[in-house]
């Protein structure tokens, strides 16, 4: 949500942005990378703790990211007439099967949102099947990609500063977020690609 928070603050400089996370790591990353005014843990989804959270924060809008569906959090927002939005919403195939079984419950919960901005057209269809009103749904894309252009420019600057010279004929194999054992796979792939593409 780095880009989302940045845009929110740029467009509304006086807005107070309160971000909650569910893990220690998430909180540390948010504190380091987000232009938020406050970063805290999300209260446990028990009525007393959520009520206390709403009382202390007093939000004018609530944005729920991806698939965080906490019943007390959502129902109290609706009760307090606080506009509720779901951004970067998604429903995986695995979750879809489970949600479909209990769609009579989730239908009511999902329709508490004023709008649900989905990552893909497929996600939108799944939300429709789960009973979300079509006028609440909008395909917005994956917000994780929104700051890619900015990062790309930073990468270009790094390449220039590092004196790495790339020709137009050059191809680059970029590998990221590796897990143990995966590096060997990509090194083998690189060797295979070198056979037909000497410029990689």
Structural write-up:
This protein has 200 residues and is of the alpha/beta class. It has helices spanning 2-11, 24-33, 47-57, 71-79, 93-101, 103-110, 121-129, 148-161, 182-196, and strands at residues 18-21, 38-41, 62-65, 84-89, 115-118, 137-139. The chain has a four-stranded parallel β-sheet with strand order 3-4-5-6, with helices on one face. Strands 1-2 form a two-stranded parallel sheet. α7 (121-129) links the parallel β5 (115-118) and β6. α3 packs across α4. The longest helix has 15 residues, at 182-196. It is globular, with a radius of gyration of 21 Å. The two termini are 34 Å apart.
List the helices and strands and how they pair.
Elements: H1 2-11, E1 18-21, H2 24-33, E2 38-41, H3 47-57, E3 62-65, H4 71-79, E4 84-89, H5 93-101, H6 103-110, E5 115-118, H7 121-129, E6 137-139, H8 148-161, H9 182-196
Parallel strand pairs: 1-2, 3-4, 4-5, 5-6
Helix pairs in contact: 3-4
Features:
about 200 residues, alpha/beta, four-stranded parallel beta sheet, two-stranded parallel sheet, 9 helices, 6 strands, about 10% strand
Q: What class do helices, strands and sheet pairing give?
A: alpha/beta
Low-pLDDT runs: none
Number of helical regions: 9
Major β-sheet annotation: 4 strands, parallel
Task: Tell me the series of helices and strands, N- to C-terminal.
Answer: HEHEHEHEHHEHEHH
Estimate the helix proportion, in percent. 40-55%
Strand order of the largest sheet: 3-4-5-6
Mean pLDDT: 88
Q: What fraction strand? A: 5-15%
Question: What is the CA-atom radius of gyration, in angstroms?
Answer: 21 Å
Question: How many β-strand runs?
Answer: 6
């Amino acid at each position: 949500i780095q880009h989302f928070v940045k845009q929110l603050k740029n467009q509304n400089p006086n807005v107070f942005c309160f971000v909650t996370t569910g893990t220690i790591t998430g909180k540390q990353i948010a504190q380091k990378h987000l232009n938020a005014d406050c970063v805290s843990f999300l209260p446990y989804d028990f009525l007393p703790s959520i009520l206390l959270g709403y009382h202390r924060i007093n939000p004018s809008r609530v944005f729920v990211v991806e698939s965080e569906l906490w019943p007390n959090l959502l129902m109290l927002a609706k009760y307090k007439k606080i506009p509720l939005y779901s951004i970067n919403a998604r429903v995986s195939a695995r979750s879809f099967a489970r949600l479909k079984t209990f769609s009579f419950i989730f239908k009511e919960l999902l329709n508490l949102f004023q709008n649900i901005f989905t990552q893909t057209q497929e996600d939108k269809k799944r939300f429709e099947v789960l009973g979300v009103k079509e006028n609440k749904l909008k395909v917005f894309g994956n917000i994780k990609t929104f700051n890619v252009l900015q990062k790309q420019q930073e990468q270009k600057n790094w390449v220039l500063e590092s004196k790495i010279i790339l020709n137009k004929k050059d191809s680059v194999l970029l590998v990221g977020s590796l897990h143990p054992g995966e590096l060997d796979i990509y090194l083998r792939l690189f060797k295979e690609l070198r056979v037909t593409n000497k410029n990689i």
